[in-house]
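[job 4471] stage=fold_predict status=RUNNING
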Amino acid sequence: AACTHIPFARGVCGACYRTKQAQRVDDVQACQDHIACDAASRSELCVPVLIGNEVAAEIDLDAPVRGFFTAEDEKKMLQAAADLAEAWQHHHWKF
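[job 4471] inference complete, writing structure tokens
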């Protein structure tokens, strides 16, 4: 769970929600809109879990190293998000 309420209009998670696209930030300190839940965070990867065209959840990862997340990590997390969406629909979970 996030350390604080993150409005849809702000932060990396908010951008992920608004664009419905993965957000991979190599240096969160260079991102003016970054909301730090951990002072040690230096890079972030956030991917949406889409049910139809709606964001049902997000997978948000932080790392204490700049440039930690790779394109391959993003690809794997997008697959994990798709797997979650499939399970969500299979089990008829509700928002």
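[job 4471] summary: The CA atoms of residues 45 and 74 lie 7 Å apart.
[job 4471] exit 0
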